[in-house]
Amino acid sequence: MRLTTKLALSEAPGATQKLLYDDGSPLGLRIMPTGTRTWFCEVWLRPATTGERGRSVRRSIGPISKFSADVARSAAIKLAGELVNGRDALKEVREEERQIKADALTVSQAVKQYIKGKRRGKDGLQLKARTVHDYLAMVEEGGLLHKLADRSIRRITADDIRDVHKSIAKRSEHSAAAAMRTLRAVMNWHGVVVEGSPFAKTTPGRDRIVLKPTVGKPNPIKPEKLRAWWTAAMARAGDPSADGCRFILLTGARPGEVFGSAFAEGMRVADVDLEGGRVVFRDTKNRRDHTIMLSHQALDILRVHCKDKKSTDKVFDVLDPGKTLASINREAGVDASVSPHKLRHTFASVAEELVTGYALKRMMNHAAESGDVTGAHYVGKSEAQLRAGWQAVADLIAPAAGVVQLFAARTA
Questions:
Q1: CA separation (Å) from 387 to 31, 145, 361, 374, 394?
Q2: CB-hemisphere CA count at 13 Å for 182?
Q3: Cα(29)–Cα(141) distance, rounded to whole angstroms?
Q4: What is the DSSP letter of 184?
Q5: What is the pLDDT of residues 170-180, one digit of tens each?
Q6: Residues 269-307, buried b or exposed e (16+ Cβ, 10 A)?
Q7: pLDDT tens digits, one per residue of 244-280
Q8: CA 259 distance to own-chain centroid
Q9: Residues 6+ apart with CB under 8 A from 362
Q10: Which element (helix H / strand E) includes 110?
Q11: Whole-model pTM?
């Protein structure tokens, strides 16, 4: 049949898509069950050599609301001629549009798409709120990567990356490494390949940016000061800030899990099982639930702060224990840089001599290192073993004499 605009509008939709073809031209009409009607061009391309199969190529022209049958027919004839001669103009236009769109993607937009679509390989979960915040801060005003924020991510050169790394490194090598890890992750996720990339192992050493593994800076309370610190903290027993800090020291819990932060609720009464002697922290930093077996000393602290509270109440209704901790540090003669997180360092330093390495990892809620098959698949620790570990640490921290004897032996 000869397709006309009138016919295209009058033909009723079917249960599935309906295809109508024009008599004497490559024009066709697609009618969807929803009633959407689109003109298309379809041509059969003959094989280049004997033995090859031919193939049908179909290209959309546009909706009947924009093109009459006569205009669509003329477009189909022209498009068919180009296809037969080996040129796909429509495909070229689409590729050009795709490239323009790709080039328009800025580093800032790329970071936002990354944090929205990125999933952890091991569990398929989204990035934690704290990680999202840190990545966004990179491209905001004053951020480490703000210099590149409005640049097309596909137009960044190796020299651009090196220049940004060099400028950040003047202030902090640690910050420079963090910024480069973020940039590399986002570029890899978007499939961006930079010629002579400073991240590539094939790049000569003089032009390469070597990102060293992140190294922590443990700063525990010094052994000879631990007795004084505990005494000063005990003098404030009942104060949620002081008791929360003591709880961190006894358990190794993360401060955000105990007190809460902008990215964590903090410990709630519902998280505490006083009868069973345990606390469960949900969806922690490594996206796992973490159960702490409470020592007698830690349990005594929680009994005081859970009493007469609702299940939804915070155990330690304090967001920032900084002032109280600073006061305890001064009174004990402890380095002012000792923060709630350094109390976690102190717990680990004490526990390291009392439990096995694998038990300590579980007590600290650290994931098994990549490639550590033994730790990840073979070594199991029962609740009783872990509870004994936490109790051993508490027994050495809480009784002052025990602490002095332990560290005297260590330094002998």
A1: 69, 45, 14, 22, 11
A2: 30
A3: 52
A4: H
A5: 999 889 999 99
A6: bebbeeeebbbebeebbeeeebbbbbbebbbebbeebbe
A7: 999 999 999 999 999 998 888 899 999 999 999 999 9
A8: 23
A9: 381, 386
A10: helix 107-117
A11: 0.67
